[in-house]
Design goal:
alpha+beta; 2 helices; elongated
Length: 123
């Protein structure tokens, strides 16, 4: 029996699919590339005229969602960098594209990177 582990310990994204009609979702693991799921089954997609195309679109959707979720939960976190002016005003710099903005959202309007609120300075 293998020891207790977490997904982060054993999976090595990115998630992909094999590109065959079977539609296996694959990912690197500590043991090498492994099949994680068989997505290409007909289910209710078979009742649509374009069922094969719908299944392929769903397979791509799942792979993209799994990669996005992994990045959100386990990826490196990027933070807005606060630039304070002498007169008390602030602007923020995106660490990915180095462009200065007024901070209005969690996404850089220049490069689209998801950024978290500026870190509090700790002394």
């Amino acid at each position: 029996m293998k020891p207790t582990a977490t997904l982060k310990d054993i999976l090595k994204p990115p998630f992909t699919h094999c590109g065959t009609p079977v539609g296996n979702v694959t990912c690197g693991t500590v043991e090498g590339l492994r099949r994680l799921a068989d997505v290409r089954g007909w289910g209710f997609f078979q009742y649509f005229e374009n069922g094969e195309a719908l299944q392929d679109e769903f397979k791509d959707f799942l792979v993209a969602a799994m990669n996005e979720k992994w990045e959100r939960d386990f990826g490196d976190k990027s933070f807005w960098i606060e630039q304070t002016w002498e007169k008390g005003g602030s602007t923020y710099v995106c660490p990915e594209c180095d462009v200065m903005h007024q901070w209005e959202s969690d996404y850089c309007p220049s490069c689209g990177t998801r950024l978290l609120e500026p870190k509090e300075e700790t002394e």
